[in-house]
Amino acid sequence: MLPLLPEPDTTMLLDTLNIIAVSAEATTAALIANRYRMDWFGVAVIGAVAGLGGGTLRDVLLNHHPLTWVKDPWLLLLTTVFALIGAAMAARMQKLRHLFLALDAMGLVVFTVGGCNVAYELHQSMAVCVIAGMVTGCAGGVIRDVMCNVVPLLFQQELYASVSAAVACVYLYCFETLQMPQMSAVSLAMITGFLLRGLALRYNWRMPTFSAS
């Protein structure tokens, strides 16, 4: 399977969306760090983990080097700046629950598509591409929550990992199987992700829980 060369405008779009998503995740992580009264260094670390942790784990699993933040160290500065901004504005942002959820959903969708791309360009199978997308989209939040001693959102009833899986499948099916232009595949995948996440939050869709009785 030979990867299709992405259109230049799509590459620029994905890079831009990734920067926005990294910034957004770093900002939302600051809200959790502030809730547990972490110092500024702790806030910066949590922001970096949330924004870059998923991609780092994906690259390690796929033996893809250099790691994103090693290749572009300025990303660490980016996460630090937005994490500190988020912490400074935490009192106000706590009231903006819908903004928090929108930023988190954007990070989930964008990271998932980006993770699929990395695995695809490494000539991995479609199954591995989907998993790589899910790891990129979800792992940063899991590591963030574990470090904050919180049960990760991924392991609760929220439709989170399933949304990431749906985004990955839609993107790869459109791009690889239907041979759609990458811009169109990205757009459809992102719309799917935002719709699913939004509907799940609006109508309280949840995964069944395990109960031993």
From TrEMBL:
Membrane topology qualifier: Multi-pass membrane protein
Protein name as catalogued: Predicted membrane protein
Subcellular location: Cell membrane
Glycine transporter domain sequence ranges: 17-88, 102-174
Presence of keyword Transmembrane: yes
Highest taxon of the lineage: Bacteria
Gene Ontology CC: plasma membrane
Alphabetical keyword list: Cell membrane, Membrane, Transmembrane, Transmembrane helix
Residues annotated as transmembrane: 12-33, 40-61, 73-91, 98-120, 126-147, 159-178, 184-205
A UniProt-annotated Pfam family: Gly_transporter
Family: Belongs to the UPF0126 family.
UniProt xrefs under InterPro entries: Gly_transporter (IPR005115)
Organism: Zymobacter palmae
